[in-house]
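User: Can you recover a sequence for this backbone? Please restate the input before giving your answer.

Assistant: Of course. Working from this structure:
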C-alpha cells in the first residue's frame, strides 16, 4: 500500500455492503475452519474442536469470533474451553446438533440449543444460556442443559421472525409428524411452541432421524432431508409471522435402494433466490453419492422430480450444504481436506458452476472435513432480513456528509437527527456540519412489516479536524515500548495496523514507521507515525591510570555540554578528585539519552613517604611508624636506632610498621634515627634516612 495519510476518495456505500457478519467464522469437522472476513474465504487453522456432523459458531457484527461449539463443548474466542463450557448434551454425531441465537435486544446473552443423537441417553432439545460479559468478556455458561423437549430428533434450524428481531427455532419431533417452532424474544424463550402437522411421521429405526433441516434465507420455505428407510425430501411453506408450517410437498431425490445406515438424502440448501433446492444424497454407505439441483418453483412433487439435475458425483460421503456470507453454497464431502463450492447457485443445472475441492482447509493443525458444516440462523444471509443500518460517505474530514440506509424496502418513512440540532425526513439526506467533532446521529425507520414497530439506529460519527490523528513523529534513545494509537472512545468500526494488529492501540517493538488505517461509520483514513532513534551522547574519562596516596588525580570527561553527570561516587560534577584505587564510572545524560564510561585506577610507582612523628599512646590514632600505605617496590629494608646507636627495629616488608617498643617494652619519648633502602618499580635503588619523634 502507498503510505498516504488519507486513502479514501469520496466513498458511497451501496446497499450490498451492509451486512451482518455473525456468520463470518466457520468451525466444523476435525479442527477445520473458514474465515469469511476476506473473500474468497481462507482456511482457519486455530480450531480445537472436533465434530463428525453438527457444529455452530457465532461472531459479532464486525466479524470478530465470539465462540464456537460441537454441541458438547463451547470454545471461546481464544480457543480454550469457555468457563463452565463442558458437558453439553448434544452429540458430535447428531446431524443438526446445535445452533446459536443471540438474545434479541441484548448485547451479551446468547441461547445455545443442542440436540443429542437419537441413540444417546439424555437426548432431546436442550437450551444453554451464555453471558458474554462473564469471565472477563470471554463468556460463561450461566445455565446449562435446560430440557425443552425430550423427543426432538436430529433436525434443528432457525430463522428470524418477520419483525427482523425475534428468532424462530424449529425442530422435528420423533415418532410424530410434528414440527415445533419456539419463538425467542427479548423476554426469552416462549413457553409453548407453535405446532404444525405435515403428515410425514418419522418413526421406527432410529437412523430415520438422520438428515438436515434447512430454511431458505428469506424464511418462507423449509426443507427437511429424511434419510435411511424414508429417503425423502420434505419441502414446506413457513410463515415467519406465526411460525406455522403448511403445504408439505414430499419427493424422493433418487429411486429407492436397499436401506443402509446413513443412506438417502442427507442435506438440503436453498439457492439465494429460493428457486433451486440442492440436495446431497448417498446411494450406499460405502461412498456412492450425488449432489442434485431441483427447481422447486412448480410447487408440486412431479415437477420438482422432473427438474432434477445431477451436479456432481463424489466417491465419498456427500455431507452438509451451507450457504455462505458470499451467497455461494459450500459442500462438505466426508474425510476430504478441501471444501467444495457451488459458485453460482442461482443458475440452473451445471451453470451453477460447481468447484470440487475449491478451498483447502488442511493447515498446521491437520484440519479435516467430516460430514457437517456449521449451523446458522439462515436470515444472516438475506440482506432484507438484516436490521436497518446507516452509514456516511466521503472522507473523515468532510463537513458535508451524505447518509445512506442499508435498504429502502419495508420503509414507510424515516426521521434523521444529525446530532447538531438539525433534522431531516429524506431517505438519503446530505447534511453540512459547522465544525469538526463527534456527533451522535440517530435514524428512526418507520416500518411497514408485521412488527408495527420502529427501528432506531444511533451511531457516533467523527468528523476529523485534520488528516493526522496519531500525533507527531517521535524519537527515542533505545528501542522502547511506546504505546501509540487512538482512544477507544473514537468508536471506529475497524482498525488495521501495518503490523496486522486490528485493535485501536499498539505497543511499538522497534524503530520505524507505524501506520493505522481506521474506518468509522463509512469514512476511512490512514495516518503514519515515525519512531526514530535519537542520537546518543558519547563520553570518555580517559585511559586507566595510577595513583599515589599523597598525589591524588582528577578524573574528568573529555567533552562537556551534558545535561547531567552522575559518578558512582555520588558526585554530579564534570570532574572528581580521587585518592584511592578502584573502579570509577560516570553516566552522562543529554536530551534524555544516556552514555557511560569506566576507568580503572590502580597503584602507581610512587615515592616513599615517611612521617616525622607518631604517638603510640593506645588512642588508636597514629600508633605506628613506617612507610605510608600505597607504595609498591621491588626491594625494601628499614632500620630504626635509639640515640645510643642501638638497633631497636628492622623490617624488609614495606607494609610493616614499628609500634614504639623494644623487646616488647615501650621505649621512651624522644627522637629516633631511621634508615631506609629500597628499589622502586623502575629498578632504581634509593637510600633515605631521617629521625622520627616518638610522643606518648
Amino acid at each position: 500500500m502507498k503510505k498516504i495519510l488519507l486513502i479514501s476518495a469520496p466513498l458511497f456505500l451501496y446497499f450490498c455492503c451492509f451486512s451482518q457478519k455473525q456468520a463470518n467464522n466457520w468451525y466444523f469437522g476435525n479442527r477445520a475452519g473458514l474465515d469469511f472476513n476476506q473473500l474468497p474465504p481462507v482456511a482457519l487453522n486455530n480450531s480445537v474442536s472436533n465434530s463428525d456432523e453438527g457444529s455452530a459458531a457465532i461472531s459479532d457484527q464486525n466479524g470478530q469470533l465470539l465462540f464456537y461449539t460441537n454441541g458438547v463443548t463451547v470454545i471461546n474466542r481464544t480457543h480454550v474451553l469457555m468457563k463452565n463450557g463442558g458437558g453439553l448434551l448434544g452429540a458430535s454425531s447428531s446431524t443438526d446438533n446445535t445452533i446459536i441465537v443471540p438474545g434479541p435486544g441484548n448485547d451479551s446473552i446468547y441461547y445455545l440449543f443442542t440436540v443429542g443423537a437419537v441413540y444417546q441417553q439424555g437426548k432431546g432439545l436442550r437450551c444453554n444460556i451464555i453471558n458474554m460479559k462473564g469471565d472477563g468478556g470471554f463468556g460463561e455458561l450461566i445455565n446449562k442443559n435446560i430440557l425443552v423437549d425430550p423427543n426432538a430428533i436430529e433436525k434443528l434450524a432457525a430463522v428470524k421472525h418477520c419483525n427482523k428481531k425475534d428468532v424462530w427455532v424449529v425442530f422435528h419431533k420423533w415418532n410424530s409428524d410434528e414440527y415445533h417452532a419456539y419463538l425467542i424474544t427479548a423476554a426469552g424463550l416462549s413457553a409453548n411452541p407453535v405446532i404444525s402437522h405435515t403428515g410425514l411421521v418419522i418413526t421406527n429405526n432410529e437412523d430415520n432421524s438422520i438428515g438436515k433441516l434447512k430454511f431458505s434465507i428469506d424464511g418462507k420455505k423449509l426443507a427437511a432431508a429424511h434419510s435411511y428407510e424414508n429417503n425423502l425430501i420434505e419441502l414446506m411453506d413457513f410463515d415467519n409471522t406465526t411460525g406455522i408450517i403448511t403445504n408439505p410437498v414430499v419427493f424422493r431425490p433418487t429411486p429407492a435402494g436397499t436401506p443402509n445406515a446413513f443412506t438417502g438424502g442427507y442435506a438440503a440448501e436453498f439457492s439465494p433466490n429460493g428457486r433451486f433446492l440442492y440436495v446431497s444424497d448417498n446411494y450406499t454407505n460405502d461412498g456412492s453419492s450425488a449432489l442434485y439441483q431441483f427447481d422447486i418453483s412448480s410447487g408440486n412433487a412431479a415437477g420438482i422430480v422432473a427438474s432434477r439435475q445431477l451436479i456432481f458425483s463424489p466417491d465419498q460421503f456427500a455431507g452438509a450444504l451451507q450457504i455462505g456470507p458470499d451467497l455461494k453454497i459450500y459442500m462438505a464431502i466426508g474425510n476430504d481436506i478441501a471444501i467444495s463450492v457451488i459458485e453460482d447457485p442461482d443458475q440452473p443445472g451445471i451453470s451453477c458452476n460447481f468447484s470440487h475441492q475449491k478451498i483447502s482447509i488442511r493447515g498446521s493443525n491437520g484440519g479435516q472435513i467430516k460430514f457437517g458444516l456449521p449451523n446458522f440462523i439462515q436470515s444472516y444471509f438475506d440482506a432484507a432480513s438484516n436490521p436497518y443500518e446507516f452509514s456516511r460517505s466521503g472522507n473523515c474530514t468532510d463537513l458535508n456528509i451524505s447518509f445512506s440506509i442499508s435498504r429502502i424496502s419495508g420503509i414507510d418513512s424515516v426521521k434523521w437527527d444529525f446530532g447538531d440540532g438539525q433534522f431531516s425526513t429524506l431517505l438519503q439526506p446530505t447534511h453540512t456540519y459547522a465544525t469538526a467533532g463527534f456527533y451522535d446521529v440517530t435514524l428512526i425507520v418507520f416500518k411497514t412489516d408485521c412488527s408495527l414497530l420502529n427501528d432506531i439506529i444511533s451511531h457516533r460519527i467523527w468528523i476529523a479536524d485534520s488528516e493526522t490523528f496519531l500525533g507527531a513523529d517521535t524519537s527515542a534513545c533505545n528501542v522502547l515500548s511506546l504505546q501509540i494509537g487512538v482512544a477507544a472512545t473514537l468508536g471506529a468500526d475497524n482498525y488495521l495496523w501495518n503490523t496486522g494488529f486490528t485493535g485501536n492501540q499498539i505497543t511499538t517493538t522497534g524503530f520505524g514507521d507505524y501506520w493505522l488505517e481506521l474506518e468509522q461509520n463509512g469514512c476511512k483514513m490512514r495516518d503514519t507515525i515515525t519512531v526514530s532513534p535519537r542520537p546518543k551522547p558519547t563520553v570518555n574519562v580517559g585511559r586507566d591510570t595510577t595513583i599515589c596516596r599523597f598525589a591524588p588525580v582528577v578524573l574528568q570527561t573529555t567533552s562537556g555540554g551534558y545535561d547531567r553527570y552522575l559518578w558512582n561516587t555520588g558526585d554530579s560534577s564534570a570532574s572528581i578528585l580521587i585518592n584511592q584505587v578502584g573502579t570509577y564510572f560516570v553516566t552522562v545524560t543529554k536530551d534524555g539519552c544516556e552514555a557511560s564510561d569506566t576507568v580503572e585506577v590502580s597503584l602507581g610507582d610512587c615515592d616513599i613517604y615517611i612521617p616525622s612523628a607518631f604517638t603510640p599512646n593506645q588512642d588508636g590514632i597514629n600508633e605506628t611508624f613506617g612507610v605510608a600505605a600505597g607504595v609498591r617496590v621491588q626491594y625494601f629494608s628499614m632500620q630504626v636506632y635509639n640515640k645510643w646507636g642501638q638497633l631497636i627495629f628492622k623490617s624488609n616488608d614495606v607494609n610493616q610498621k614499628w609500634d614504639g617498643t623494644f623487646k616488647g617494652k615501650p621505649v621512651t619519648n624522644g627522637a629516633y634515627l631511621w634508615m631506609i633502602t629500597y628499589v622502586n618499580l623502575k629498578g632504581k635503588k634509593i637510600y633515605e634516612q631521617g629521625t622520627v619523634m616518638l610522643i606518648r
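That completes the design. Residues 419 and 440 are 5 Å apart (CA to CA).
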